[in-house]
Amino acid sequence: MEVREPDGVTVAMGEPVAASVAEPPRIVRLDESVVNRIAAGEVIQRPVSAVKELVENSLDAGSTSISVVVKDGGLKLIQVSDNGHGIRSEDLPILCERHTTSKLSAYEDLQSIKSMGFRGEALASMTYVGHVTVTTITEGQMHGYRVSYRDGVMEHEPKPCAAVRGTQIMVENLFYNMIARRKTLQNANDDYTKIVDLISRFAIHNSSVSFSCRKHGVNRADVHTVTTLSKLDAIKTIYGISVARDLMEITASDDNPSQSIFEMNGFISNANYTAKKTTMILFINDRLVECTALKRAIEVVYSSTLPKASRPFIYMSIKLPSEHVDVNIHPTKREVSLLNQESLIETIQNAVESKLMNCNTTRTFQTQTVSCAPASNFTARKDTQISPASGTKSQKVPVNQMVRTDSRDPFGRLHAYWQDCPASQHEKKSDLASVRIAVRQRRNPRESADLTSIHELLNEIDQNIHPGLLEIVKSCTYIGLADEVFALLQHNTHLYLVNVVNVSKELMYQQVIRRFAHFNAIQLSEPAPLPELLILALKDEDLDSGGDNDDELRKKIAEMNTELLKQKGEMLEEYFCININQEGNLTRLPVILEQHTPDMDHIPEFLLSLANDVDWENEKECFQAISAVLGNFYAMHPPVLPNPAGNGIEYYKKIKDKAVSIDDADNHGQDDLDQELLAEAETAWAQREWNIQHVLFPSMRLFLKPPKSMATDGTFIQVASLEKLYKIFERC
After folding, report:
1. Which string of DSSP letters, residue by residue, matches 144-164?
2. CB neighbours (10 Å) of residue 403?
3. Mostly located where (predicted)?
4. How far apart are CA 84 and CA 514, in angstroms?
5. Closest listed residue to residue 124, CA positions, set 87, 98, 147
6. Mean pLDDT of the residues in the chain
7. Do residues 442 and 237 lie in contact, with contact meaning Cβ atoms separated by under 8 Å?
């Protein structure tokens, strides 16, 4: 039987009907925002990728100091600050556009590229997956600029602001628009560990640059290095003396054009080094990269020398002609392609093998005394673990989640096994002390200034805390400025007036004591001559007191104070990062709070106080006085120019006709104001208010330990209470 289809085709019953051929999908052009987000996901794979790009930019900018602050593993905040050459204000509009760079202008430039960045994609990618804020200042500028970016473009025009030399880039809410990526990066500790490892590697190779890396809100840095000429010292600082003592220097080179042209130097571990994981730090033409083939080749050499459970420590820096390296083969520039790579690897492998064979004549083994604990301890512990709770069925715990010892049980502590060995007690105490010192030096290499006087000052701060004010400070809410000195804050149902000057002065003082000998530096754009500044301060003192106008006496006092400060310059530099050179110029100041720069108008008074108010003979009183002087200098005093928001506007009126009466002067318009001076004042007061809200109060919540005196000296004044207000309203 046949069936006729509507289109006239006859199909026999029982025969299969061919399926209709599906049309191919249409190719469409993706929206530019989608393209940019996909590209950003390749370049910025996780927070450590963003940190690497920003640190490389800082190194390209010629920085000598780089500071990294991270919050929640980099998802909430990544802040990288440097003291490099900064960014031109006219370049800020295109700074975060894709493929905008100062590193090259033609494709041929890649053949001789020396900078670490070259694509112009990193900052742009960050703006597509996070919120980016840039603060920068170049040499010679009176002020810096701050601007925020989103999706590659500025959110607003660059705003003038106070800034420390160089650039600071903040990346907030990373991957806020990539839900799946953000969920896979919830382990903040894992990402922070990767960031610390990255900064450690950069710090070893770039030993002429000081690095610091810490978590947001934590005063101590997990990586803190100072400028040094020795890479071995940098390794000792970061990885500890136990690693550095088992390293040996290695070099290799080849200048045969038919094989390879390179120079290699570095450090490799000897046969005494033991570790369960290979640590390989490889820089090729100063670029941090990975080379799996080279790593494998070296591990093969070590496998015949070291025990099977041990892995080597390797730091290598390889220099090749730029035209022999292709740097543009990986989205994150993690890998490079080398000309004659097999020959280069073979040469390095032979050099490592030769070095190991020559050093393997002696081996060092660490020994320890085994202490026998009383059998009753083990028995009692075993019994308590075996007896189950009545009426409950014990649940089997997975091995990877099993707790072997209970921290609340004294038998689970090492001290329980030291009681029967009084003869070796002193030896164990000294070993423990040495371990503590080693750990402390590894975290803070300059903590040779572990002075009793500093500990006493820290103890005085801790013992003088007012618990009620501490509770207010830790959980208060900033409301706003009430006037030039007082700010309003709320705690629970109470409203308080807080003296900003007193609070900032105490906070800066405490921070100086805590960060003693561990400061980053503010480099002054021009050296400040001490004699001239001291004479200015003396003139101001005489004006205030109505003293004699004796220029010769002032000059003599200024010279004496200059000589005194020059004599104390070494101590001021080492402990407080105050650099005074032999010509009598102030060149460097410490960073006490991140994002805060002191008002440079107060430098003369600061120097005069430093010379006159410090007892240089008594160590504790000396450190305390210097910290107090720094605290007063860095405190958030009102600017020198009157506040134009109130009656201070009278100060900025310029009366062209001196015969004009005072009544007429009040009627003069904007044309009669000194606009340049007015703009400077408005910027200064706005910057102070911003600093109080965004720098002072957050830092106060984290670090300030308010002394008892603040409860009675008018620093904190309660002005309203919700409960009492309700009572008043009820009466009404």
Report:
1. EEEEEEETTEESS--EEE---
2. 8
3. nucleus
4. 27
5. 98
6. 79
7. yes
